[in-house]
Target: Fe2OG dioxygenase domain-containing protein
Amino acid sequence: MGEADEAFVQAIEHRPKLSVAEDEGIPLIDLSPLSFSNDANTKNIDDLVVEIGNACKKWGFFQVINHGVPLEKRQKVEDAMRKFFAQPLEEKRKVRKDEKKAVGYYDNEHTKNVRDWKEVFDFVVEKRILMAASHEPEDKEVPETLNQWPDYPPELRESCEEYAREVEKLAYKLMELIALSLGLPASRFSSFFEDPTRFVRLNHYPPCPAPHLALGVGRHKDPSALTILAQDDVGGLEVKRKSDGEWVRIKPTPDAYIINVGDILQVWSNDVYESVEHRVMVKSEKERFSIPFFLSPPHYTMVRPLDELTSEQNPAKYRAYNLGKFLATRRQSNFKKLDVENIQISHFKVQELANELDGALSINKK
Ligand code: OGA
Ligand code: NI
Model:
């Protein structure tokens, strides 16, 4: 990616601290109770639900082991993605994504209007996926997005598809546990995922000559319901600790997955769980690879707090938003530097609306 030009430089307050202590603070949760189905294990499942609920509340992040995803499937994708990214740029750009093609190769992503020090290849699990074309409410166009598989390496496609199917099973198991942890029936979320959006990204963070100025991915929250991330052994993922706002580095655990609450789950749970900011530091001598799997409901979903989690005393904290339009707005800012702030779920907060109205009224009163 060459020199660290100005587009990559983070504002001073967002630059990484190179000396931050690694913290094993995010809980490591053993999912082995899920692999036995006898009654004696019910108690373990209850404990697991409590553990998951606590992790979602305290951190919005946790790691899982004994998750049932075969290691060999993950290794196949990791091998294939290394081969893909090792190619010259012209080759990778043959499957480049742009404003029209929503998935493929990309090396020019911006998070919060600063360029990320990474290149990515993404795909959807469906052969095709429908996404809203633009954020304009009147624009009803929902074009098909086709995956763009490269010729090389030939095994990339199959290895990605097989891997995604396994991770998806894990995602649904976790959504059941999360539903239970919210006091809901295990299957509460299943209707949202009858027509799911499963978006997978292969991330390559090349060595960076200025790791103190740039970030692999700038601070952001995931717009998904749930994210399941595989990171290699290099490390660099940082999570904003809810208790004090400090950035905490997540130490890689072999064959573990990092799970995080996304924006949609935050809204569904009416803020019981929060989607937490995270970012990726880069290194000057080491490249890093990671694979996030983002699970979301279909684009036409109106995302709003679940009725069971709201009441007169605890009213809905969000107005409903259309997921496809939200993502289309976000996508636009991924391609170019904009002068406006990226769209966030906080823009749909009922309180914000009330404050805006108050503001408007007090202006009128003056
Ligand atoms: C992301 C992300 C983290 C990582 O792609 O949304 O947060 O470790 N990635 O690559
Ligand atoms: Ni993320």
In short: The mean pLDDT is 88. The two ends are 54 Å apart (CA to CA).
